[in-house]
Amino acid sequence: MLLFRSEEDIDRWCSATGEPRGEAVPLRQVWQLAQAWYGNRMHPDFRGRSALEAGAVFASVGLTSEFWRVS
User: Is the pTM for the entire model greater than 0.90?
Assistant: First the structure.
């Protein structure tokens, strides 16, 4: 995950590096994802997520585009 100041900065970075453009997400939404994704990692009963569970976490913070679909 990379942080940029603007959409134009993303485009410039992609042009300079040859990397494909991914999904641009506001920082607030990134924070919501981090809380949902990592919030229970230290719990003794924690286990990894299935693809279905991961998709549910993404959807719970509004990440529903094709980019966030998990097979």
Answer: no
